[in-house]
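Friendly challenge for the regulars: who can give me the structure tokens for this chain first? No prize, just bragging rights.
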Amino acid sequence: MSKTVGMERANILIVDDVPANLMILSDMIKDLGYIPHPVISVKKAQEAVEKKLPNLILLDISMPDITGFEYCTMLKSDVKTRDIPVIFISALDAMEDRIKGFRLGAVDYISKPFEKEEVNVRLATHLKIYQMQQELENYNRRLYKMVNDQMRMVAEEQKNILRALANLVEAKGDEPGSHIQMLGTNSRLLSMSLQFSPKFDKQITASFVDEIELAAQLHDIGFIAISDTVRFKEGDLTKEEWEELKDHAEIGAKHLEEIYKQGSKNDFMKMAIDIARYHHENWDGSGYPYGLSGEEIPLAARIVKVVDCYDVLNRNRCYRPAYSMEESLEIMRQETGQQFDPSIMEIFEKVQKQLKCENNVTIHG
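First reply, four minutes later:
Bragging rights claimed.
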């Protein structure tokens, strides 16, 4: 009866420098229903392995140039061949040879002269084990993919909910529109530009760029807890009203922290928390809620602060009309080193014209 591994007949590579041994083993293996592939040297064996991976290798120990022990070590150090079962074949029957072979990764040992029944039992046993290992690895890969797909779906659903919540906050604003989408897009574009700066290239990775696009859109999510009377007041705020307005940074961060604790433990959420909490901190330490300064402020929050201020200046507000792009940039130049990280502003000025903008024509008069 033909023996199989998976859907194919098992391919057995036989490596022995004695032609008579190759002939005997090849005939046995054919009779047992397997496909023999006899080779007379390690060089030939390597060529055979490169053409097609065998399901099992019968390997002589005593060979010229490269011994079976040395070749076994080579096989086990290669990711493509390390799992292929190796059975040593040899007239050497000393216990130390067997132990050395097992330590090098061989699964069994067949002594010369060969007995067909012994060869049959040992091949069948190790091919079955190998087949089961391959099936288990395939199952684990499928399971890993399925779990990852489910996790991605859950993460995407969470992101959609957060996007909807951020849109809801913006919809209550004094000029509902595309602010949060532009903020996300421009934060991504500015981050990509910063990657080319030696000051930031180690900190801003590809995943950082992907994460900031959505994380930035949640920066003002804390406004959902601030009264409209305070948020949209056209006149000067009282001290109490100003303190209430400032609370939105910590409130937003705490809401996002609760989501993070409940299962969405990923870098995107950690970045969103940092942005929500620290995007009103100033480079010189004059901001809120904690008065952080310089590089104490997380990099993502420093980036979003620049992009957010630029977009806000370019929009009509309840207390003023929009500034032009040129006016907005000049206002921000004056705040460089005070509100804004000078190194980020240097790159921002170079790429500012490539950023998306709501209003690039209205001149504030």
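Confidence is low (pLDDT under 50) at residues 360-365. The domain at 4-143 is CATH 3.40.50.2300 (Rossmann fold). Your move, everyone else.
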